Design the sequence.
């Protein structure tokens, strides 16, 4: 691409192109004074293809897309995507409250295909610091230098310790569920994990799309199938003002609040819960061949062993303290994801500041604290749950966070990042300061 031929030194280099760096790349385009390029080892944009189940919806408003919250005139917005595809009126007339996940993935792919500052099939092997710049080495192209880097390589599947040894075709993490081709017909299937992914996979298996199973179980540590809290005031947790207030809190308070607010970002969509209840009803009372299907709340898997051609799971029942055993031919782990820094920045990791739990310490502008010069920054996206709050891994504030990072790189406000105050006053001191400023 022309940019790579022209620029030996970038203002900012992005490592990884998922939704967050895609947003940043799109918002960088109008800022011609900043030289940027974002590198992705895959040949094209690909977002959770392994969980693109039929009929699933986004949990985030389509207006909170890659750019609109900070640049509604951008040509990379979701509404412009609809116009470009010729289906704006059809979409509006269909009265979608939420967008199908497959359509939103296509929207993001559409954005990626228009950006000239994104380089796919560019495998970053190593990032070092030479005292003045970050030096980025590739497997398949010449090295480049950059003043700043933005790391957004995503999360890795979390595999519980009891499941690591026995992984394989018949014990897989949910992130690859749609890639699995083998039939489940006649199999005893167990899903582990009580969030949205677990619910969607349970529904899909129950539907018989991959064959009618002989038994279906769903294990969750949660006390019940708890709904995602999408109410108006809970949504204020996903606002710029709350993120700023949260950032100023002591670390212990932040960790307490993250646990307390779990269902604001990690519950099951109420629509999915209704579908689940109806599917169980229809399976039991209306189907001529009902599948034995059970939801097992307050269970924690403590061990899993292979017995011949199947697995045996040992569960602790938190409701009555009992020890339970369950046999399964297929185990699907909807056990979430974990933060892991990419191997390519291994040389920089010892220079980063970590908290007592081993997490990165991020500044308010999402740059990681490190022992290098302040004129060179390492921004990390989707690593600030305990510094910036529960909105950090969600798409809701992707555009706003991108704007914060761009303003930090430019060292001036290129984008407005301070909207009007919310209806909730989180800090009395903030309120008093605002009154004095207006006086």
Sequence:
């Amino acid at each position: 691409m022309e940019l790579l031929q022209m620029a030996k030194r970038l203002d900012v280099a992005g490592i990884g192109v998922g939704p967050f760096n895609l947003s940043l790349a799109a918002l960088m385009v109008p800022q011609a004074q900043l030289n940027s390029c974002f590198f992705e080892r895959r040949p094209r944009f690909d977002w959770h293809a392994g969980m693109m189940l039929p009929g699933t919806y986004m949990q985030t408003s389509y207006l909170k897309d890659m750019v609109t919250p900070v640049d509604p005139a951008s040509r990379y917005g979701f509404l412009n995507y609809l116009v470009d595809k010729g289906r704006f009126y059809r979409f509006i007339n269909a009265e979608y409250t939420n967008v199908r996940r497959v359509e939103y993935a296509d929207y993001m792919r559409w954005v990626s295909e228009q950006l000239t500052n994104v380089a796919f099939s560019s495998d970053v092997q190593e990032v070092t610091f030479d005292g003045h710049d970050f030096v980025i080495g590739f497997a398949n192209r010449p090295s480049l230098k950059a003043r700043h880097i933005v790391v957004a390589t995503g999360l890795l599947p979390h595999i519980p310790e009891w499941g690591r040894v026995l992984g394989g075709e018949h014990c897989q993490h949910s992130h690859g569920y749609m890639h699995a081709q083998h039939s489940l017909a006649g199999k005893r299937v167990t899903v582990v994990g009580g969030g949205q992914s677990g619910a969607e996979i349970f529904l899909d298996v129950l539907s018989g799309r991959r064959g009618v199973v002989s038994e279906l179980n769903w294990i969750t540590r949660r006390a019940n199938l708890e709904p995602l809290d999408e109410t108006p005031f809970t949504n204020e947790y996903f606002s710029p003002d709350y993120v700023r207030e949260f950032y100023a809190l002591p670390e212990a308070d932040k960790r307490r609040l993250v646990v307390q607010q779990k269902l604001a970002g990690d519950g099951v969509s109420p629509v999915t819960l209704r579908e689940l209840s109806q599917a169980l009803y229809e399976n039991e009372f209306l189907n001529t061949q009902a599948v034995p299907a059970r939801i097992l709340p307050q269970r924690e898997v403590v061990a899993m062993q292979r017995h011949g051609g199947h697995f045996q799971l040992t569960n602790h029942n938190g409701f009555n303290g009992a020890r339970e055993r369950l046999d399964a031919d297929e185990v699907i782990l909807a056990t979430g994801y974990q933060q892991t820094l990419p191997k390519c920045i291994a040389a920089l990791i010892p220079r980063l500041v970590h908290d007592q739990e081993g997490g990165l310490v991020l500044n308010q502008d999402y740059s990681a604290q490190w022992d290098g010069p302040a004129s060179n920054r390492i921004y990390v996206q989707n690593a600030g749950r305990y510094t910036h709050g529960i909105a950090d891994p969600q798409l809701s504030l992707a555009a706003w966070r991108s704007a914060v990072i761009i303003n930090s790189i430019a060292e001036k406000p290129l984008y407005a990042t301070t909207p009007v105050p919310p209806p909730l006053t989180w800090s009395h001191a903030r309120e008093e300061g605002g009154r004095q400023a207006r006086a």
Observations:
- The CA atoms of residues 61 and 97 lie 8 Å apart.
